[in-house]
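Box 3.1 A note on notation
Throughout this textbook, protein chains are presented in two layers. The first layer is the amino acid sequence; the second is a token string describing backbone geometry. Keep the layers aligned when reading.
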Amino acid sequence: MESKLYSPAHAEAEARCFGQVYFHRYYFTLNSFPGNRIFFKNRAWRYTMVYMTRRYIKIFFVLCFLSFMPFCHAMEWKGLHEEADKTDIGSALKKAESDPGSKDALYILALSYLNIHKNKQAGDIFDKILSLDPDAYEAAWGRAEVLRRQHKAKESEEIISGILKAHPRFAPANITLASIRYTQLDFRAAARFASRVFGLTRQEVDDGSLVRAYVIYGLAKGMLAHYGGPLSKTIDGLASAPPLKRAEKLRPDDAIVLFGVGSYYLLAPVVAGKDLDKAEKYLKDAVVSDPLFVDAFVRLAQVYKAKGDSDKYREYMDRALAVDPESELALDIDSGACRFVCPAGRD
């Protein structure tokens, strides 16, 4: 018989105030003895505390998940960039055709087009992704990178600035802006944006983006040393080679790495390791690895000019201009302006 002093119904009503609703199943028939009020009250508190503890733990994990959402998203683009670097264009096309609504497959295809300098096709795919998801900032970056390669720096920078405001740790956007600043001869800013990528964890950046950042930083530091005073020549000059070595260790056969190291041997002063033969080897390997790498053709042309071979200089410079008649580096060097440095010949 149920006690009128403190019944399970009373205990359940009290526990509801603390958030526990279903604890009454624990109270069986023990409510018949005289001390049941204290018993039920203690049980109410006990199960209420268990309930509330579990609830707070759930809330804690939900908050943790939400706080790491940007990190999870960074892992997603990182994986797609890494997959694109090892996927040939045929495989990327086949995957995109088999699943035309997949943003991931389309993104890999667009990156694959970028890797072989098919900029217009890449831009069309990035636009398609944005039509499916206007908030896909990775595709917006891709559109900005295409604009940069088409020498539309102002339009590219407008997009990149918006992306970096919302996603400052997005490595590809920092690299694109570093490349724009380098072309604008703002080598200090180029080095600064490239160095932002170094501050990311290895879980936040893919190898391809990291080596590009190393190369831009190393070459920008070399330019600062060239144009700077004695202090800059020491500080920036010493900072030029190490990132290039780190890039070479990470991806020794990558065209951008071969270009960076070859450019160093071409442009460095003799006391810092200038070596035209090594420059020729690295830059030739770069153009073999990437036959449409305009900047590598230009620097290789400069190697031959420094060696006194004007015919080969003309051959490689013409090849560079044939691929990209608007190349800032090619036009600067071929005109003799040499803002991007024209090295002296053999000493």
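Confidence is low (pLDDT under 50) at residues 1-6, 10-41, 64-75. The two ends are 110 Å apart (CA to CA).
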